[in-house]
């Protein structure tokens, strides 16, 4: 196997392992639009990285963290519905990023690579960052698991039981933001939320407990990465979209088996 394909496979498996459990909370708490908002803001992070002279990936991470904090704080206001705020931020940031890129005449950006992902271009440094970051994110999720699970059932009840709901909500949003930022290079801006939602949605039909659903989501995500990269190699198709198509096929097979 060529080395670039080995790097892509190891990076994709590490990302799927982390995205599966977080995808469960995205499904349970109906945070899909939150993930889309972070993804659409990625191009603005790329511009920020270029203007400040840092790596575009680091610019995406920094912007995602800032947006997670802002969106978490905005949930307390009552003047606008949360989905309205997310829609404004998502499309405003995407449009601003595209306009800013067009104004940077001296900079050439692989726009399709950011939109659809470029997993075959990852290096061993990217692989190490994905596995280390994913491991730390899963460790934090494990520490907060009881609180987050109680919040997913009922936030008021969780607060009455003594859980720090506001802190847990903020930490969850920050962790999801980091996972989304890490997934950009694999499946791109347009498809990043699919890697969180589809395996978790498929795992729901196979699990009897929340913990089982998290494990199944990770396994199905890893299977989608292996199948998608194999299909991309065999049929010469884009790698990121191929991974998402494989996840959709697995979801369909799970639903057929359930029936």
Structure notes:
The chain crosses the membrane at residues 6-28, 40-73, 85-104, 116-142, 170-201, 213-233, 239-256. Belongs to the ABC-3 integral membrane protein family. Its main location: membrane. Keywords: Cell membrane, Ion transport, Membrane, Transmembrane, Transmembrane helix, Transport, Zinc, Zinc transport. This is High-affinity zinc uptake system membrane protein ZnuB. The structure is a single chain. The chain is mainly α and 259 residues long. It has a single domain (3-258), classed as ABC transporter involved in vitamin B12 uptake, BtuC, CATH 1.10.3470. It has twelve helices and no strands. It has helices at residues 3-28, 32-40, 42-52, 56-74, 82-103, 111-116, 124-153, 155-160, 165-187, 192-203, 210-235, 239-258. The radius of gyration is 18 Å and the shape is globular. The model has no long low-confidence stretch (mean pLDDT 88).
What is the CATH homology-level superfamily?
Answer: ABC transporter involved in vitamin B12 uptake, BtuC
Radius of gyration: 18 Å
Q: What string, H for helix and E for strand, traces the elements in order?
A: HHHHHHHHHHHH
CATH class: Mainly Alpha
Structural class of the secondary elements?
mainly alpha
CATH topology: ABC transporter involved in vitamin B12 uptake, BtuC
Described by the principal axes of the CA atoms, the overall outline is globular
Low-pLDDT sequence parts: none
Note the gap between the termini. 38 Å
Keywords: Cell membrane, Ion transport, Membrane, Transmembrane, Transmembrane helix, Transport, Zinc, Zinc transport
Transmembrane segments: 6-28, 40-73, 85-104, 116-142, 170-201, 213-233, 239-256
Organism: Magnetospirillum sulfuroxidans
Protein name: High-affinity zinc uptake system membrane protein ZnuB
